[in-house]
Structures are given as C-alpha cells and as structure tokens.
C-alpha cells in the first residue's frame, strides 16, 4: 500500500513542543491546507480517492482512524500524535472514522481542489485500480 507514516521534526521545550513542517519533511509542495473539526464520533469523512493529488494527514488534537484501500488490501491507521503524519499517495481510497471528542484533522494537499481529481464511487475506484 502506497502510504507512509512520517515523523514531523519537533522542538521539545518544558513550555511546550513545536512541530515544524518545512523543507523536505513531506515530498510535495503544499498547495492547499484544510482541517476537519467538530466531527461527531459516529460520522465518517473522506470516502474517496485521488487520481493525482497527494495528502498528508495529521491529528492535531484527539484521534481518529484512517481506513485505506489500494484495490487489493485494506489497512487501518490510527492517528493520535501531532508529530506523526500519514502520507496518502494517489489511487488510495480513504475513509476517516472513530473521531474522538475534540479531534482536529489537518490535511496538507499537493494541489488545489479539483473535482475531476476525485473518485467518489468505490466500485469505480476498484475498477480503475486493477
């Protein structure tokens, strides 16, 4: 599966830590930043794949599960540390679920929003992944 957990460099301090994403921490130039918050624990987000766009997800607060599918296998990754991010490459289906109270999911994307880059139907995704 074409995913990777990346450790975000941090500066530790007794007053609180700082995590820094710059230079070559993630393998793409960030073109869009958005975040998900106030998500009910029973809700699911995502439910799509991208044809070309890469995304880097970070649990800034709380935790949530990212259920991934590459057309052959399914894998669940729990994000719950603000200094670890999940790199999701193209052609990977993703669903976000099991949000804890107060969780915030930050997404750094390699491109601006383009509807034509999304595959939102799972059967279509499976047909294209073969």
From TrEMBL:
It comes from the Bacteria. Residues 1-128 form the Sugar 3,4-ketoisomerase QdtA cupin domain. Gene3D superfamilies: Jelly Rolls. Pfam families: FdtA (PF05523). This is WxcM-like protein.
């Amino acid at each position: 599966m074409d995913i990777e957990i990346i450790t975000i460099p941090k500066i530790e301090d007794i007053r609180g830590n700082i995590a820094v994403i710059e230079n070559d921490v993630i393998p793409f130039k960030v073109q869009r930043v958005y975040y998900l918050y106030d998500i009910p624990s029973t809700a699911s987000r995502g439910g799509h794949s991208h044809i070309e766009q890469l995304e880097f997800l970070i649990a800034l607060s709380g935790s949530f599960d990212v259920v991934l599918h590459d057309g052959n296998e399914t894998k669940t990754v729990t994000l719950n540390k603000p200094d670890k991010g999940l790199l999701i490459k193209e052609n990977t289906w993703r669903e976000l679920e099991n949000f804890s109270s107060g969780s915030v999911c930050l997404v750094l994307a390699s491109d601006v929003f383009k509807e034509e880059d999304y595959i939102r139907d799972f059967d279509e995704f499976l047909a294209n992944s073969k």
